[in-house]
Amino acid sequence: MTLRRLLSRYAGFSGMAAKEFLAYNVWFWMNLFTSAVAMTIFVFFWKAIYAQADLIAGLGFQQTLNYVLLAQVIAGVGESGILWTFGYQLREGRIALELLRPLDFQGMLYAFSAGNWLTGLLSRTPLLLLALLYGLQPPADPLAYACFAVSFLLGASVMFFFEWMLGCLAFYTTEVWGLGVTLFAIQLFFSGALVPLDMMPEGLRLFAQILPFHQIVYTPVSFLAGITPVAQAPQVFLGQVAWIVGLAVASRWVFSRAVRAVTVQGG
C-alpha cells in the first residue's frame, strides 16, 4: 500500500466525524444551548468578583474575561471519547472486527478524533459570536492565533493518548460509565475550563500542571488571553511534544497487554 493511499484511508476516517456530527444535530443544539447558558453565568459571576478587586492572581478583569469566554468556547472540543468508544465496542462485540482491519487501530481512531476536533471547533462559531457580544477582545497579534492552533492540536493529541490508556481499563472492567463520569469531572476542573490555573492555590496549581488535562484548554487559550506570551511558544510546544511522545509509547504498550484480557458478552 502506497503512502498516499494509506493517508487517504485515514483521511476518510476524519471525514466520517463530520458525517456523524451532522447525524446528531439535536444533540448539537442542546449542547450549544447549555454552553451558552454556562457562558452567561460565568460572565456575571466574574463581573461580581471583580467588582470587589482590580487584580486577582495578577490578572485584570478583561484578561480574565477573555480567558473564561474562550475557555467556554473550546471546552470539550478536544475530547476524543476513547473511553466511551472502547466501552461501546466491547459491549457490542465489535472490537475484534476493528482489530482485523488492515489499518492501525490507534491510527484510525486518531484520524477520527482529529476530524472531531476540527468539526467541534467549527461548530462552536455561534458561541464565539456570543463571546464577542459579552466583551471578548481578540488579540491583535496574528502569531497568537497560530500559537493557539498549534498548541490546541498538540494538546488534543496529548489527551488522545492519555484517554487511550484510560480506555484500556475497559478491557478489564467491561463497564466504563463510572470511570467516564469521574474523568469528565476531573478534566473539567483541572483543564482550566472553569477557572484559570493562575488563580488556583499554589499546591493545587502545581498538581494541575503535573496532570495532562491543562493541555487541552488552559495551555492553548492562555496564548489568546495574553497569559502566556507568544515568545514562550517554542518552550510550550516542546513540552507538549514530550508529553505526546511519552504517552504515545506508553499507550501502545498498555494496549498490547490490555487487549489480551478482552472479553465479549462474558465470553
UniProtKB/TrEMBL annotation:
User: Which key words tag this protein in UniProt?
Assistant: Membrane, Transmembrane, Transmembrane helix
Question: Which positions, given as ranges, span the membrane?
Answer: 21-46, 109-136, 142-164, 176-197, 237-255
Any one Pfam family here would be: ABC2_membrane_6
Q: Which InterPro entries match?
A: ABC-2_transporter-like
Record keyword Transmembrane present: yes
PANTHER family (alphabetical): SLR1174 PROTEIN (PTHR36832:SF1), SLR1174 PROTEIN-RELATED (PTHR36832)
What is the protein name given in its UniProt record? ABC-2 family transporter protein
Provide the species name.
Calidithermus terrae
